[in-house]
Amino acid sequence: PQPAEPPAEPEEEPGAWEETFKTHTDSKPYGPTSVGLDFSLPGFEHVYGIPEHADNLRLRPTEGGDPYRLYNLDVFQYEVFTPMALYGSVPLLLAHRPRLSLGLFWLNAAETWVDIGSNTAGKTLFGKLLDYMQGGGETPQTEVRWMSESGVIDVFLLLGPGPADVTAQYGRLTGTQALPPLFSLGYHQSRWNYQDEADVEAVERGFEEHELPLDVLWLDIEHADGKRYFTWDPAKFPNPRGMLERLAARKRRMVSIVDPHIKVDGGYRVHTELRARGLFVKTKDGNDYEGWCWPGSSAYPDFTNPEMREWWANMFAYDQYEGSTEALFTWNDMNEPSVFSGPEVTMHKDARHFGGWEHRELHNLYGLYVHKATAEGLIRRSGGRLRPFVLSRAFFAGSQRYGAVWTGDNTADWDHLRISIPMCLSFGLAGLAFCGADVGGFFQNPGAELQVRWYQAGAFQPFFRAHAHLDTARREPWLLSPEHLALVRAALRRRYALLPTWYTAFYHCHRQGIPVMRPLWMEFPDDPQTFAMDDQYMIDRVLLVHPVTEPGARGVNVYLPGEGEVWYNDETHEQHRAPQTLYVPVTLSTIPVFLRGGTVIPRQDRPRRSTEAMKSDPFTLYVALSPQGTAQGDLYLDDGVSFDYATKNAFLHRHFSFANGTLTSSSADPSGSMSSPAWLERVVILGVGRPESALLTTHDGSQTPLQFQHDPEHSVLTLRRPGVPMGADWSISLR
Asked: Which of 131, 152, 174 is the endpoint of a domain?
């Protein structure tokens, strides 16, 4: 008999051992190395997460289209409602149904694709109902397929069972959001670029003259000498220290950009030192990897090398970063990394890192390492005493430990305003609580209505910064008409009045890993109406916000969730029973915000120029009663700048509770103590009848009757000047 033919070798996939993309070749020295795994989620039809994508909060089935891509890229004028890759990647997917939430964390920093399948996709509500009535119909099920170009399979299953349990479990794995310095929750004014010291002074003066609060002014790439980071243009910024000292004297701060591409220049200390130490990323042939970026020909520090991160952190010392002071903080842009001359505007996958790793293995980690080294530098320059503030464009799982992120180079149009909400909600679910979008849009020029609506929306997102492209018209708020300027001022003041609530929410997030800005289903996990909602959201558990994102809007439909709950309009204090969909008429001045019945919301209502100017200002407590006549809430206070809250327990965490006609203040965490000038100026109780009397009892037992005013139409009681310190125990009884 004939000897059996040896089995034919399977044909190689084209591109398995070498791949060409446009003019770029990827040598793939290890050949095909991909890994993948499929997960079935029976009973689930709502999945979320895997940022960053300019898409709805609820992820869509990808059958018949592209999968969601996770690959950090500098995308020029990105489109909305697409699964395309953007600046950052967190490979965490969450699934939710009534009574159960879970998470899948696929720990892999190589290029990753996520395919989502669903057996209910395309079925109408009527179709699902028909299935149900006929007793048939399969259980809804979602299929998730992860595919990464390289690496190993390393998956964490987060079993909840509640939404906050999943985010807390993820926080235990990757760290929770760093507690931001208080100033960074104020308003930030940026553009590419404020021209020189005189321009900076004029803009700062504009905020002063128009009585607009401002905490931080930003400088983009043109401030440096020929885009050599850690330097200042000697003609435009001859006296940076003096400029920073003037800002600090007005209780304001500055952020300057420090990007991770280093100009190839024998006369530039950063380049010569890193080259001499061999700390740049290498090509596959072992030479310094060079590509084109803002300064022209640039080399890329290898931030995966601990020695490189150490060197970088030391550059932020006051004697190394010339002209820097305590008032200067940092912005890391272009850290995907962006390489104008590279494939897809990023680094070649066969470039080599510390330890011989190829770039393809760890691409999505590069930005996190830049962010980490920069934050470490800002901590180190103060001897470990002061909290850093660093904004980063690229990110990965764990970037929340180092600071803030934003949605990158958006466009001045209504779709981009709209998409900023689901984008930030997705960031928050993936641990990145300190998120925002460029107010007004980075590219192009917003009309006045869009600019006002964007300020109103931005005032209710965690990171609040206006920013604009070099080629756009100037758009400081006072360049608007007086009517529109007044609306921007009102939005800014609402932000500042609510800073105690924002800061307390960030403390909860830092401690428990729960997002600050969160989807409704996290608070109302058994209400399917909320599962796909992403045009309204909660701030902590206390405020419901539905920004107006349509041009010419006359009204919005706001869904008020919660069986048997009550909500109060933040401006009129009108009461609304839930659950219901409420039509709210709006004018250009309206920001639909509702206080949740059963909560206590701390505010500081005196308008000031910055957060630091509010330090000794008194507080107002808004007590929004539940239908049962009860409420609970808390307030977190510390010095706003240092790590003393963690190292010396220098903080106050107060608990407020209203029951049986009595409002009580007690310590929520007796391990913390701090002297604070803060005192209580007013208490506003919503949903209460007129009492005969209001009696304040202080911790030593002494009693004082309080003056009050009652509005019977809205059932609002205002108690005047209790005058007690915020850190003290006291109670107020209504009789």
From this structure: 174
Candidates 210, 198, 194; CA nearest to 243 is 198
The count of C-alpha atoms lying within 13 angstroms of the C-alpha of 720, restricted to the half-sphere facing its C-beta, is 4
Does the active-site annotation cover 535? no
Domain boundary among 113, 145, 174: 174
| Helix, strand or coil, per DSSP, at residue 428 | helix
Assign 3-class secondary structure to 22-40. CCEEECCCCCCCCEEEEEE
Q: Which domain, by its residues, includes 562?
A: 473-734
Task: Examine residue 6 and state whether it is found in any structural domain, yes or no.
Answer: no
The predicted-structure confidence for 225-244, as pLDDT tens digits, reads as follows 999 999 999 999 999 999 99
The mean per-residue pLDDT over the stretch 707-734 comes to 98
Report how many domains make up the chain.
2
333 as an active site residue: the answer is yes
pLDDT tens-digit profile of 350-406? 999 999 999 999 999 999 999 999 999 999 999 999 999 999 999 999 999 999 999
CA 464 to each of CA 380, 431, 459, 520: distance values in angstroms, whole numbers, following the listed order: 26, 18, 6, 21
Q: Which of 333, 438, 570, 638 is catalytic?
A: 333
Please name the amino acid found at residue 637: L
User: pLDDT tens-digit profile of 254-281?
Assistant: 999 999 999 999 999 999 999 999 999 9
Q: What share of the chain is helix, strand, coil (3-state, %, to 5)?
A: 25, 25, 50
- Which residues are CB-neighbours of 479 under 8 A, at least 6 positions away? none
Catalytic hit among 215, 220, 409, 438 = 409
Name the pTM for this structure: 0.96
What count of Cα atoms within 13 Å lies in the side-chain half-sphere of residue 511?
Answer: 11
